[in-house]
Amino acid sequence: MSKRSVLVVAHTGRPEAVRSAQLVIERLSEAGIAVRVLDGEADDIGCAGVDVMPCTAAAAEDAEVVMVLGGDGTLLRAADLTRTAGTPLLGVNLGHVGFLAEAERDDLAETVDRVVTRRYDVEERMTVDVTARRNGEVLGTTWALNEASIEKAERERMLEVVVEIDGRPLSNWGCDGVVCATPTGSTAYAFSAGGPVVWPEVEAMLVVPISAHSLFSRPLVVSPRSLVAVEVLTDTPRAVLWCDGRRTLGLPPGARVEVRRGAEPVRLARLHLTPFTDRLVTKFGLPVTGWRGRVRQPARPSAADGAPGTTPGTGQDGAPGRGDGGGDAGGAASGGQRG
């Protein structure tokens, strides 16, 4: 039986992340689990007895999980290493919002224990594959977990683009750019640009124009099977393609960027099957004062009990009843734990 191993990725520019990494490594090692760290982080972490790995996809091969200590940016960096390996990411938020993270800094010891005892679930998140072309020539290919954005490269001039959905032109926009996002990315750049929040289990792609000068410049939600293309018009300034704010490619006038559903998802480890609604409320600090939740109706006597004028499944005087599934007019379905 091969030895268990965990890859630890940390934002070593933060002293707290370094201390957290050292604690994680100590606890995992005590449990007999081999620990890997990246060669660019090993000196800063400074722990003996770890396996130092090159910063490539090989670092995550055959690892049980990748523990990521930092913010969403650190997790997106780690996703570069794990996507092809299929190793799940477990994020511990040491940043600000940390939408992709599963645990907070105060839960670090418990999080390590859950890894040691294999008490976590794994879910897959949709990605997008991105190809840039010009006159049929491929300029580059890449991918994104959150979004691919086509943006102007010169501040003083607008970018002129035309957007195509499934081979048909939709509209041209003079704008600062266009964001093509996944549901996971709907709470990232696309959210800041005015796009909708999409629940992660919804399979779709978002097309969100940035500061467009147009009567029709609303955010769009399209099929996950759609091919979205953004063409940079030939008489416009050069543009730049950004994927997850990490990978970039210059786009000359006349370039075409094609975005489609990714062939490989990213896998995230989950400790708590918390409804996404609860995650939104917590991360954004949304006000929910006044929510009463689902109101259960009191049990009504049935005909079997000899109550006059009632029959099973009906309300008073034989009127159809709502039973236990009904709620008050202002109530909402309960957002309890799943599983």
Account of the 3D structure:
- The structure is a single chain.
- By secondary structure, this protein is of the alpha+beta class.
- It folds into two domains: 121 residues, Probable inorganic polyphosphate/atp-NAD kinase, domain 1 (Rossmann fold); 136 residues, Sandwich (Tumour Suppressor Smad4).
- The protein is built from six helices and 20 strands.
- It has a six-stranded parallel sheet with strand order 3-2-1-4-5-6, sandwiched between helices. A six-stranded antiparallel sheet has the order 9-8-19-16-11-12, with no helix packed on it.
- Helix 1 packs parallel to helix 4.
- The C terminus is likely disordered.
CATH topology of the largest domain: Tumour Suppressor Smad4
CATH architecture descriptor name of the largest domain = Sandwich
Q: What sort of overall outline do the alpha carbons produce when their principal axes are compared?
A: globular
Helix and strand pattern: EHEHEEHEEHEEEEEEEHEEEEEEEH
Question: Low-confidence stretches at least 5 residues in length (pLDDT < 50)?
Answer: 303-339
Beta-strand residue percentage: 25-35%
Please give the share of residues in helix: 10-25%
The total count of strands amounts to 20
Radius of gyration: 25 Å
Output the strand order for the largest sheet: 3-2-1-4-5-6
Name the CATH superfamily assignment of the largest domain. Probable inorganic polyphosphate/atp-NAD kinase, domain 2
Overall tally of structural domains: 2
Distance between the termini: 31 Å
Q: CATH first level of the largest domain: which class? A: Mainly Beta
Overall SS class: alpha+beta
Number of helices: 6
Mean pLDDT: 87
By oligomeric state, this entry counts as single chain
